[in-house]
Amino acid sequence: MEIVSDSGEGAQKCGQVFGAVSAKMGNGVWTVEIIPAEIQPPARVPEGASGFRIRLGDRPITNWGDATNLVVAFNEQVLLARHRVGALAEDAVLLVEDKWAAHDDESIRAAWERGMEELSERRYRIVPVPMEELCLTIVDDAKKGKNMFALGMLACLYARDLTRVKEQIAQTFRKKSEAVYAKNISLMELGWSWADEHLDFRIDVPVQEIDRELVVMNGNEALGLGAIASGMELCAMYPITPATSVSHYLSEAFEKFGGMVHQAEDEIAAAGVAIGASYAGKVAFTVTSGPGFALKTEFLGLAVMTETPLVVVDVQRGGPSTGLPTKVEQSDLLAALFASPGDAPHVVIAPATIEECFHVMIAARRIAETFRTVVMVLSDANLATGVTPFARPVPDARWQAAPLDLSPVPDGLKPYAWNPDTGLSTRIIPGRPGGMFTLTGLSHDEGSKVAYSSGIHQRASTMRSRKLAVLSELLVPPAPYGAPEGDLLVVGWGSTKGAIEEAVDRARAAGLAVSSLHLRFLSPMEPGLRDIFRRFGRVMTVEINYSDERGDPHITEDNRRRGQLAMLLRASTLVDVDCWTRVPGEPLRPGAIHDAIRGRVPRGVDT
Amino acid sequence: MSHCALPLLPEQDDHEYELSDYEGARARWCPGCGDHSILAAVQKLLTQEQLVPEQTVFVSGIGCSSRFPHYLKTYGFHGIHGRALPVATGIRLHRPDLTVFVVMGDGDCTSIGAAHWVHALRYNPDLVVLLLDNGIYGLTKLQTSPTTPQGFPTNTQPHGSLLPPIDPLQVALGVTNASFVAQTAEWAPAHLFATLRAAYRHKGLSFVRILQRCPIYAGPVYQKLVTDPARIALLLHEDGVMVPELGKLYANHVAHDPHDIHAARRLAADRDHINIGLFFVDPSRPRYEEIRRVAPRTAAERVALLNKELDRYAV
What we know:
The complex is a heterodimer. By secondary structure, chain A is an alpha/beta fold. Chain A is built from 19 helices and 20 strands. In chain A, 37% of the residues lie in helices and 18% in strands. The radius of gyration of chain A is 26 Å and the shape is globular. By secondary structure, chain B is α/β, with parallel strands linked by helices. Chain B has one domain: 3-Layer(aba) Sandwich (Rossmann fold). Helix content of chain B is 31%, strand content 16%. Chain B has 10 helices and 9 strands.
């Protein structure tokens, strides 16, 4: 279901309340914001559509689904936007504010007529609703209240628990006055009674008993909370969509945990401040998105070369360049691995769920510290803005870094005393007597002495690389979702896990021998992949990045540019890994993935 | 510079640091390079102020002058071109107990790292920031820098540097919240030392532009200044840099109250003389790492607070 409006009409607040109530009642919930690119787009234009999509289920929901079955729209133009991008199901019910039909302005009436005509191409059921007229019986400005009316209609249609709805409204407007709360309740009740009286259908989504403690948040809040739980104390950043909300959250919360957000003068400085802080003690992190990451890469190389631990979070958006600032893409994978010139081995991890956004920060901090390396965390706009309940984490003091060790350095201990077997060495921080050395980005020996001989560079490069091999030995081979063998294995990474697995479920239900595999570690690559791939007839990645389509003009097997994970897997396994990738500027729909699977495995019971 | 958490006197074991305690690798700058004299002055400062080597960090960028940390036996961070200041800021934010020096060349500071320079002056963390300004790119072999005098030929501007040079002092004095701006010259070691000492003792970012000769690529740049002391004027004030023994060599004296920002800007723009001394100081300006200081938390405290925080998100 979706609520769409012009920007500033409160559709998102309505959706948030509805989503929270549904989660508390025991439905699976995934919500995602529909965000226009501009802050204050003009009213009544399709590109200004602002809103909220909520997917409900009788079991945990892992993605935003396919098409919307019910829409509440505050004008026909924003509704047309959703229609034109194919967001609406064939038989969707559209509850539309009807005041535009009889508007004083002739051009608005004409636009309404044209809009209705365009919508009538499909089998939608269009229900005009006098939202404005009814809201004006309670408030002077319907803009400030229509969202609660919409909430009431939805609560009635989906049989939400009225007490919980009221509680959630109280919590949402807790900073406002009692009068505001009372008005919002009246508006919500008005919407409920209108729907109860005028609408002849109800939607039943059975609830499950909640048998464990849950928390609900978006992926960026989870990253921020995870950073706190990991014991990191400095987040250095520069504003960039869609990463900034991590720092919004932390700017409010971090100081009470002994941490701070430093908004630097630019992306480069943010990386530099984080590296300076890490060098001086505890691991710090910087959070950015693609264009910002591009600027940080020289510092990333320095951190790798000097073995200074650092966590870099990239909340990916569409690229290249400024690209699609608010939209999801998984196009930074190869940049995350290879953006730094020279050989700069480091760790790349991609959380697959909002819950993993929390836990990945704890792993990232620990790996960065233990392996004296850079850990990149690749989230994306889908995780950043998606909201879903997950098992409440149980914080553990052991997740955090130990207090600084400022004891004297043992005689003879060098700053890069590489263990020849593992490449690991003990980090020496300033303040430790007897440990004085100059860290340098120049090639250096165990003592951090600038070294130009090829022998030392070869050996040091080996040591930095060996650490990744050691880390990969600690990883458990991933387990396929579905059967361990079959006709097709779909491989994904990052935020697509839920959609891919839902598509696999549908394919398997239709009798196809399809499984999926989801990777968290992209560097080092997770172990055992070749053995897993061997048990499937074909292997195909599903990714939100660009690849050439087979059969397109000029495209051959030799010149075809493939998905980014597909390239990596082909290189590391020598398996002929295929790919199906799209860059629609929105999360992949399970139905589309299912269709792609069908295209690769044209068998099954009903084909 | 802050000495809040630092013992000014020798540590408990009564160890007195000598010059040799601060000597790192043998300096590999060209013979006659002004950096040698700056290194000597810095080592003298460390010795005289008895800075604890392990609690002292020198951060540099890239360029001839950025080799500086290698030649000292303190902690050092020889990072990337133009980015010494963010690194130093990160160190100060996390470890206010450490004394941090930043050494940059004119390319580092006024060109590739100019954004960081401006903003670091505004953040005003407690750092001693030395701009070793030889008016040329030396390590990459004779290219124009922003401070190269107009008309001076280089490999990238063979018909002479195209534009009037940037004036680091005027830039620094134009930045809101800058708290210490001074100029000195490496060929006047007594003045150099006195300026470094004043910079070290100032709490906040002390920006010191040091005129520094590069005899290999830019010999003529400061030649007239060196040979003709009449081209130099000493800024004198009891709150500034006073070196009485230089009074005779440098006969031009300007009484300048370093608390007067307008006079400081006028003197920086003076084209009749090169003024050396303290242009501006205001120890009351806010220091970033101090206004950002937060109470530390133990792991257990953090766990308890985190549980409370998670309650806010509970379903």
